[in-house]
Amino acid sequence: MNILLLRTENQVHSQLGSALWRSGFAVDVADPDAAGSQLSTGKPYALILLDVAPPETTQAAIRSVRRMTSAPLLVLTGRDRPTGCVEGCARGVTEFLARPYAMDDLLTRAWALTSRDESPDITLLRLADLAIDRKHGKAIRRGTDLGLSATLFELLDVLMAHRGHVMSRPRLIDAVWGSGANHRHDNLVTLAILRLRQRLDDPFDLKLIHTVHRKGYVLEVRNDHQSC
Question: What number of helices (H) and strands (E) belong to the chain?
Fold first, then answer.
């Protein structure tokens, strides 16, 4: 079960990560300022654990988390933390845990929060600021319905289901148009990808669909120097 631990580096936090790992959690660690970047990878986290930083950093991290995921968010706070921080950060936080705390208490809360819903919702998929609602056949980016046709939605859904992995043209044809489609009609995929990019990528700075030369297409978040 995956946990994302957002904190700055020191020995105490290293002990926290080790305790979580020994309790059966797979722990990824990132700086609070990098919360959005880490979550944009699309990796599913059962719990986000934020070790509180200065109030402005904490609130920014919470906003980044909530833009990317609805996973439970447990925030650790210092006992000398001004109450204004807790009040200002409360929206979007599942639970607070104040220091000093017993490690057993933290682990108990972590297990309780990750056990609330052991079955992930596969009808709603997310990558960065893109959300795909399979139940209603909608793709939404930054709160805007992209208005995709049934075919374009199916194409995006296939790419999203295999995000981070290159999909060849023949595989896309089989998945979207069926095995009876003519694999020699490469322009079928080319045109569909073009139309999908016009709605999904063109209006936004962050591009999600990338061409891999002679291999196919991949849906993923890339750094600017990686994009193609």
Answer: 8, 11
